[in-house]
# Entry
Amino acid sequence: MSDTSRLSKCSILLKHFCEYVMKIERSWAEAAARISIGQVLLLLTVTERVRKSLGRSDPVLVVRAAGESWWMSV
# Structure
């Protein structure tokens, strides 16, 4: 996968993740205070391994922050 493709995939996943967070948090400010972009990008790097270990065929975004794990199909 080229760097451009990888960046595009990360951007799309991050967009979906942000939309998801905004649904479960009262405000974006609260969500941003709990989860940093660095944490999200770090977790995106292991997404493929997690997806395969779960035996899932759909992309799964796994986020862990503030002691909670969130799973989201995108």
